[in-house]
Structures are given as structure tokens and as C-alpha cells.
Amino acid sequence: MLRFDLLLLLIVFAPFTFAALALAVGRLAGQHTGLLMILAAGTSFLGSLYLLMAGGTITFIGEWIPSLNVALSLRGDHFGLFFALVISGVGTLVAIYSLSYIPRLTPARIGRYYASLLVFMGAMLGVAVADDLILLFIFWEITSLSSFLLIGFWYEQETARAGALTALLVTALGGLSMLIGFLILGATAQTFSLRVLVEQPGLRERLLHSPLFPAALVCVLVGALTKSAQWPFHFWLPAAMVAPTPVSTYLHAATMVKAGIFLLGRFLPIFGASALWADILVPIGLTTFLLGAVEAFLDADLKGMLAKTTLATLGLITLLYGLGASAQDGLQILTHATYKGALFLVVGIVEHVTHTRDTRELGGLWIKMPATFLIGALAALSLAGMWPSSGFLAKEALYAQLLAGTSLPGWVPAALVLPVALVANAFLFATACRLVFGIFLGPPTAHARHAHEGTRGLLFSPAILAALSVGLGLVAPITSRLASYVSSAAGVALHLSLIPADPATFALSVLTFLLGTGIYLRRRTFSLMRARVASGPSMQGLWDCGIALVTALAVRFSVRWQSGSLRWYLAGSLTFTVGLSSLALTRAGISVLQVPINLREMTWYGGALCAMLGFTAILVARATNRLGAAIALTTNGFLTALLFVVYRSPDILLTQILIETVSTIFLLLVLYYLPAFRPDRLPPVQRLVNLAVAAAVGFTMFSFILLSTSPQFRELKNLGAEYLARSLTLAGGANAVNVIIVDFRAIDTNGEITVLVLVGLLVYGTLRARRKPA
Amino acid sequence: MSGDPVLRTVARAAAPLTLWVSFVIFLQGHNMPGGGFVAGVMAGAAGAMYLLAFGTVRVARFPWWKVSVVGLLIAVLTGTVPLLLGRPYMQHSIWHFDLPVIHRYELPTATFFDLGVYLIVLGTLMTIFVELAQEER
Q1: By Cβ atoms counted within 10 A, which residue in A4, A11, A177, A442 is the most buried?
Q2: Which residues of B touch A750 (CB under 8 A)?
């Protein structure tokens, strides 16, 4: 009997296991590590497919932090499993493609590549099926981190490092904002479970009327919009195109950028009733849709073009969610993942054989690369929204939705949405024309002359995606049922057909076609615009300014407060300690003056010891060379040990003597290497400040010791007596000091010894590394 | 930096003795003055004595940092065992043995934790000693 919930767990965690494996065997297997990824992705794909076909919603709930309402809960509903299917399916194809695409690098680096991809895939699958918001956030951040590694794969290049850093900073910042939103939600609703939030209308009502609700909504939306590269956070996506093409395909076309969209789909049932939802999402989605489409048409870089068309489509889906129209989200996601994945992989082949991505240097490739051309043309059909591809169905569905009106009110007039969508679609059509006519047709350029067809391994994955992209259009009735089944909206029925049923939507499609053709024919006029757009202010420039500002602030802070002067640090920490403990004493109303001091009780040897201690302490401070100071300090230490004899404390005595011995050896070892001691002439003010700090520390410590030893205050709460009473019975040891260390306060000791080990390793590492080159 | 003949003669006898005393202090630590920390420092002192007398070459050959890492492993594992048995982390228990000669012997599991502390203190001290002593001016 197959347990569905465990299968769900396997789908998410198998990639992580394989990632560790890929790291381990990557050194040996090299190129063949990709087979591991194919295996893992294939397993997750088949698992998701099985669960999706089995129907119903599968939940797995594991206990994690019950006191905070956080659980390790997964939920595989249709929408989530469909997303998992896209992730693992494209993951498999990308792994197959990578086998031929990634050049012969050092085996360890290839192992790291597949390990990062696998971790990314696991995290994406986690996002798809996570039910607990905290768990979702963790997976979400893992995708950001692993995408950083993947975008920066060619880390020798400055641009790759910069692009990876921008992507990480923007998405991680969004992720943190999202976490704040989740925490507000969790605190208000007393649950982190998406399922509970969706299923309990009463809870939702309470959320909507909470004063913190707008803040939570905005915070969560910032997270989703940064991830999906929506305006004004869109700039990281084109910058991330420095990644290897399989990575761009996987992260920036098929999966990661859709995570934000996916989150919107998850939150629509919870937040949708708020007016703020539509007010934010509709304008942002619309702006990104138009901006992405126009910029894609103007771009000269092939991958840049594709990245910007991705922006446009993501904007379109954001717009749809903003309008509350979630019925066709499955259709839009599936269409985009197939054709954009195919196009990215085709561009990868083109770059692989011609060594350029600049559209101005390409042309006439179809003679040398007929198969690549065919695949690219099929995928471009969908991008253009041409009959009979799935892109056509998606566009028709979009127009039908916009014509039918919207269910959510917003401040953007409905009359504006349809025309803008039409223009944006026309630009996408023109971009598709540029891709096909500009690269594959036309006169062959110098680069095209040396081109050759991609290998079978390279062609396989884009061929499948392109075939799916057109095939889904050809089987429109099946596609309708599939898209309705996997939509995040429950109980919807899409009616998609290749034969236009509604004359209005068909007229809009024809209009798009005509407008797009017009735009394409006037491309020279538009290319003049490109220069003007490129020189203007941009979000990227603004972002860079912000980063520079933060860096400058950090530098100034460090220079002022982290000066490296020991005296400064010591004075700071000591003053703080003294201040805090004095505050505690004042608030408790305890003063050292309340302790009766009778000097006559002092024995002669006590007095002599104290005098000698004071004398050696002054010697340390007045010493003119290091050796003198070391000797005085050691003497002081051993005299302190004598003090413990007076107080009959053998344990501490033993420790004190040994520590003094060992630290003297340390001092001698270190003194040998230190430069000559030059006591600097301090200005009088500084000397006074030092004196004040020293006096304050001395007085505070004196008060504390006196207070803690005076019988009057010891009776308040005598910890020592309790420890003594319990050490033998509870811990089987008569030595209370040691029992406290290893048993009662063992967890404290655990932390301390960990620090000790780290210190040892640091000394080992730094001193070794310093010696090595010599 | 190898010491003079007097130091060497003394060290040859005193270093093993110190090590022995440190071991005794460690074992009796649960009931009488002593314990893993002090014993570890004492063992470190014995090592330092050896180092000063005979130079760094022989002592440096031993990977002291591994001693501290092993110690941390022992300490953490001691704390983890109760966790696996469904009890809180670091909860110790007392083992009773009935042995032929001394009849009843009590071994608190805290002793294993203490052993970890001992090894960590020894390992860290020796790492720092050896690395500092190998520095060249």
C-alpha cells in the first residue's frame, strides 16, 4: 500500500538527498553527475504526476515547533502538484540539456553545479507543496540562495558576480519582507497553516479587520513581486541573464520567477477580499506587462529579449490575479513554461555554436541549423499567440476574461486594462517576429557561416517543450480540462477552442496581429528609441545608488566604532557592564553602604595579602616594559590564589594556580614576538577618563563581592546552598563545583567548550596560513 | 627553542607525573576537587613543559586540534543520547555497576561529558602552544 503523504515527502526531499550525493560523487563522475539529477527530477516528476492523477488533496503533517504553531506540514492540492509537475518536468529536461551544454570543467565544479540545481529544485518543490508559512519561507529563501550560486556559475566574470549579487539582494530583501508579513499573519490568526487560513472564513474575517492587515498584505506582496521580478523590482531578472543558459531556462523562465506568481495564487483566496489587493497588483501587473513587452522588442541581446518577454508574461499573470481572475492561471503558467523554456534552450544552442547573443550579428541561421530553426519557430508561435499554438488559447482566454469584466474593483479603470494588454501583446508578437526573422531568416552573417546544427542531446529538450507548446494548442479540449483541473480556483471550467467562438475575442486577436505586424515593420523607428531609453534613469541605477549609500554608511560606522583600538573596546564594554550592574543594584534598592564593614575582623595575613595584591596591581599598570608587566601580573595571580587558601576553596585554588601557570607560559611565548613596548603619552583628559573607568569597575566589582558575601543579603536566595544540597542526590557527585559545570549547567558548558574549540581552530588556521607561503 | 639540560632532566620526570596527576584529578573530579577543566589545563601544562624542554618538532607532529574536535564530539554525543531516548538534551543519569572487588561502583554519564571537556581544553591549549611556538620572529 503506497502512502500518499510519504510520497509527497519523498518528492520534496529526494532532490536534497541527491544534491548531497552529487557533491560527493561529482569529483569522480564529472560530466555524468547530470544523470543523478535526471534520476531525481524524473522521480519527483513521476511522483507528482501519480499524485495529481490520483486526485484529491494530500496532506502530510509533522510536528516541529508546536509551541509556536509551526509545523512541518505539506499539502499537495491540484494547483501545488501541478506546479511541482512543471518544476520537476522542466528540471528533467534541463538536466538532459546540461549534459551536452556544460563544457568540460573540473569535475568538482560540475558536481557543485548539479548539486546547486538539485537543491534549487528541491526548494522549489517545497514552495509548491508547503502548507506551513514558515516552512514555505525557508524553502523560498533556499531558492534565493541556490539561485545566487547558479547565476554566479561563471564566477570568473565580474558581470556574473554582480548579477548574482543583485538577484540575491533583491529577492532576499523581498523574502525578509514576506517573513514579516507571515509573522503578522501568524500572530493575528494564531496559525501558520495556509489550509486553515483558506478554509476558515471566520478567521479570514478577523484578519481583514485587523489593524495590522494592510501591513501584512503589503509585506507579503513585496516578497511575491520581488521574486517574480515585477516593476519596480524587475531589473534583477535581465541582470541575471549572465547565468548559463540551462539555469536561465530553469530559474528565469520556468520556475523561480513563477514562485511569486504561485504565492499570489495561494493568497488570492485569503487576501482577495481586500480592496488593497487589486489596488496594488493591477497597476503593477499592467506596468510590467507593457514595459516588459516594449523593452523586449527593443533589446538587442537574445537572452535579454527573452528575459523581458518573461517579465511581460509574469506581469500579465499578476494582473489577472489582481483582477481576481484565477481560473486561467494554470493555463498561463503551463503555456509560458513550455514555450519560454524551449526558446531559452534554442537561444542556448545558437549561442553555443555562434558564440554570440547579439541579434545584430545573427541572421540566416536556418540553412545551417534547420532543426533548431524549426523548434524555435514552433515555440515562437506561442510567444506570438498565433493559431494553433497554446499561446493562442492563452491569449484568447485573456481577452475573454478582460471582456467579461472583472470581479474585483480597483482604482485602475477597466477601460484602460484592455487596450494596454492589447498593445503589450502586439509588442510580444513583434518580438517573436524579430526572433524568427532576425536570427533564422534573412541574409547569413559572418557568425552564421561557421554555425552548425546542435547535437541531439541539445535538441532533445527544446524539441519536447516546443512540441508540447504547440501540441497543447492542437488538443484544445484536453487542454481546457487540464487547465481547469489544475487551476488555483476551485470548480472552474475553461472552454478553450481553436475555433473562435466569440467574435469579439477573435477580433481582438486579429487586431493584435495587425498592430504587431505594424510595429515589426516600423522596427527601425523603434531602434532609434532604444538609445534614448538606455541612457535615461533606471531602477537598476537607483538600486546601485542605494547599495553604494548603505556601503558608505557601513564604512563610516566601522571606522568610527570599530577602530581596532583595544583601549576603546575595553572602555566601552567595561562602562556598559558597570552601568548595567549599577542600574540593577539601584533598582533593587541595594547599596554597598548597607553592609557593615568592620576592619577589626581583618586578620593580619588578610591585610598583608590585600596590600600585596594592591601593590602588584599598581606595578602592572606602571610597568615600562612588557616583561615587567608580565611578571607583576603573574605575581598578582598567585597572590589571588593565596586568597582562595584563606577562604578554603580548594577547587578554585587549583584552577587559579594552573591557569596562572599556563597563562604565564602563554605570555612568555607571545612576548617573544611582540614589538618593543612604548607607553604612549596620553593627553590628561584621556588619562582622567581611563582612571574614572578603572575606578568605576573596581568599585562595582568590590560592591558585588561584598554584597554577595555578606550574610545579610545571602539569605535572600541562597543558590549555593541549594546546589550543595542537590549535587549528591541528583547528580551523584559530592563536588558541587564540578557537578554544576558538567550536569546542572551542562548546556552552558556545552556552549563554552564549543567556543573554545573554535578558538583553537582559528589560531591553528590563521597562524598556519600565515606561515605557509614563507 | 629547545631548553637546557637541567630543564630537560626535570621535564623527563615531571611531565609524565603531571599528566598522571591530571588524570587522577579528572577521575576524582565528581566527588573531590578537580574535574575535566582543571585536569585539562594541568595536562596542557605538562605538554607545555615538554614543549619548552624538548622543542616543538616532536610535539608539533601530533594533530592537537583533532583532540579538541574529538572532545567536542564526545561531549555533544553524551548530550544527544538522552535526546534519542526521548528525554531533554544533556540530561545525565547515573550508571550503577556491581563489580567483584569494590562491590558497588557509580558512574554518572556526566563523566563522559567531562572527558569531552578535558580533551577540548588539552587539545585547544596544545594547539595554541604549538602554533605560537612554531612562529618565527
Answers
A1: A11
A2: 75-76, 79, 90
Rg value, chain A, Cα? 34
With an 8 Å Cβ cutoff, are A767 and B134 in contact? yes
Q: What percent of chain A has pLDDT above 90?
A: 30
Q: What is the pLDDT of residue A407?
A: 57
Query: Under an 8 A CB cutoff, do A735 and B44 touch?
Result: no
Q: What nine digits make up the cell of A475?
A: 488538443
Please name the residues in contact with A279: beta carbons below 8 A apart, sequence gap of 6 or more.
A410, A411
User: Parallel, antiparallel, or unpaired for β B103-108 and A58-65?
Assistant: unpaired
Query: In chain A, what percentage of residues exceed pLDDT 70?
Result: 96
Contacts of A756 in chain B (CB under 8 A): 68, 120-121, 124
Angstrom distances, CA of residue A135 to CA of A64, A74, A668: 10, 9, 53
Chain A residues touching residue B136 (CB < 8 angstroms): 771, 774
Nearest residue of chain A to residue B113 (CA atoms): A742
The mean pLDDT of A188-207, rounded to a whole number, is: 85
- What ipTM score was computed for the predicted complex, to two decimals? 0.88
- Chain centroid to CA A665: 47
Q: What average pLDDT does range A453-458 have in this prediction?
A: 84
The pLDDT of B31-59, averaged and rounded, is 86
> Cell triple for residue A637?
595571580
Interface test with A, best of B21, B25, B28, B38 (most A CBs within 10 A): B38
- For chain A, residues classed under CATH 1.20.120 are 563-716
Give the model confidence (pLDDT) of A298-314 as tens digits.
Answer: 888 888 889 999 999 99
**Does the bond joining A388 to the residue before it have cis omega, within 30 degrees of 0?**
yes
CA distance linking residue A736 with residue A379, whole number of Å: 77
Residue A48 to residue A81: CA distance in whole angstroms: 6
Given A741, A746, A754, which is nearest B72 (Cβ)? A754
pLDDT score recorded for residue A406: 63
pLDDT of residue A401 exceeding 60, the answer is: yes
For A563-716, CATH gives 1.20.120
Checking if the pLDDT of A2 tops 70, the result is: no
B117 neighbourhood in chain A, CB within 8 Å: 741-742, 749, 753
Closest-CA residue of chain A to B93: A731
CA distances from B102 to B24, B107, B110 (A): 18, 13, 21
Domain residues of chain B, as ranges? 5-134
pLDDT value of residue A410: 66
